[in-house]
Amino acid sequence: MYLQGKGGADSTDSFRYAAERVVGEKPVFVKYVVLEGEEWPCGHRHDDVVHEVDMVVMIGMESGAVLRIRWILPGFDQGLEAVLDQAPPEGLNTVDVTRSEQWLPLIGHPVSEVAVAWHVPYEGRPQQPWALRLTFDGYGSAVVALGEEQDGTLVCHPTSLLVFFDEKAARSFVNLDDSLSSWGEVLR
């Protein structure tokens, strides 16, 4: 199944590795992976503040690398997985959002900083990333976090993604225990 991840310390290390490697990279395309047979944005929130995404955010870089950010649910360790590949996987139902009003100002500008928001999904379980921020110095930022819109309210949710383009909204969006903003802490 595509949405299974290993979880635990190995996935945390690979997440950090992928996130740190995109500093200095320039995105050239952004695609969302949506459920088979669905279109985007049909039924998904998409405005100046946030995009709601079913499964995966793929960001292609000028170097040819592709950053894939997806939700994972290995056992109880809900979180995000970030993978840096040389090509996106084949056969996924993708929607190109590169030229959307929210992504277009960030395209072609280097990632200047990455930040991660961590959480412990359940007592005794390892820490997991639940939000990743990419900052494009002087051009804005994009924050990918676990979450969805429910009855007009944005809530943390382990099997859906929100992409924030508004700093105030990202700073005010908190995880399940209300302790940490999706804005996160800088890795590098």
Topology, please?
Elements: H1 8-21, E1 27-33, E2 50-53, E3 56-61, E4 66-72, E5 79-85, E6 94-96, E7 113-119, E8 128-136, E9 140-146, E10 148-150, E11 153-155, E12 161-164, H2 167-172, E13 185-186
Q: Can you give me a brief rundown of this structure?
A:
The chain is mainly beta and 188 residues long.
Commentary on this structure:
The structure is a single chain. With 188 residues, this protein is mainly beta. 11% of the residues lie in helices and 37% in strands. The chain contains two helices and 13 strands, in the order αββββββββββββαβ. It has helices spanning 8-21, 167-172; strands at 27-33, 50-53, 56-61, 66-72, 79-85, 94-96, 113-119, 128-136, 140-146, 148-150, 153-155, 161-164, 185-186. Strands 2-12-9-8-7-13 form a six-stranded antiparallel beta sheet. The longest helix is centred in the N-terminal third of the chain and has 14 residues, at 8-21. The termini are far apart. Mean pLDDT is 87; it is low at 1-9.
Task: Provide tags for this entry.
mainly beta, six-stranded antiparallel beta sheet, 2 helices
Task: Calculate the terminal CA-CA distance, rounded to whole Å.
Answer: 32 Å
What's the alpha carbon Rg, rounded to whole Å? 15 Å
Unreliable parts: 1-9
Q: Provide a count of the helices.
A: 2
Oligomer: single chain
How much helix, percentage-wise, in residues?
Answer: 10-25%
Coarse structural class: mainly beta
Mind summarizing the main beta sheet?
A: 6 strands, antiparallel
Order of strands in the sheet with the most strands?
2-12-9-8-7-13
Order of helices and strands: HEEEEEEEEEEEEHE
